[in-house]
Amino acid sequence: PMIxxxxxxxxxxxxxxxxxxLPNLVNDAYEDRSYIEALYAVEAxxxxxxxxxxxxxxxxxxxxxxxxxxxxxxxxLRTTVYPDVALLEHLMTLDGVDAQRISEWMHFSTNxxxxxxEKACKTLQTMGLDTPYRPDDxxxxxxxxxxxxxxxxHAPAAxxxxxxxxxxxxxxxxxxxxx
Length: 179
Description:
By secondary structure, the chain is mainly alpha-helical. It has helices spanning 12-25, 33-40, 48-57, 67-79, 99-110, 118-126, 138-154, 167-177. Helix 3 (48-57) packs across helix 5 and helix 7 (138-154) crosses helix 8 (167-177). The longest helix is centred in the C-terminal third of the chain and has 17 residues, at 138-154. It is globular.
């Protein structure tokens, strides 16, 4: 199959080995109760509730924003369309908010955006894909999003096990655990 642009320069053999290993790397992922409960905790799309759930899941202090900030965050969550991260830049100005935290909000809010992960970035580097982990830079998260999307597109039919979890979550965990 054609290699997606986001994967240009990838070590093809290593990438193939990753997909062969992936089902075993993530076969316990559906046992992660706190993640699954967080994933299904909110019915509504893109609500501020996802922020609360995501922050709780990652053991962060709950936000204490005035109503105008809450409305702004909710608007950004609503208007951000996967895989574009440009609008998320606005949220980087909030205290205690970086690309890592925003990625968690977006993951639980959409089930599409991947959770930003330093370990996953390191594995992508090892595969020959320059993907720096820079939580202070939303564009770096955007690059990570495109790499994960590239892997999603490039995955062999059997490469992404059907265990009822978002594929971005399986790829993130797989990259973190791949040796």
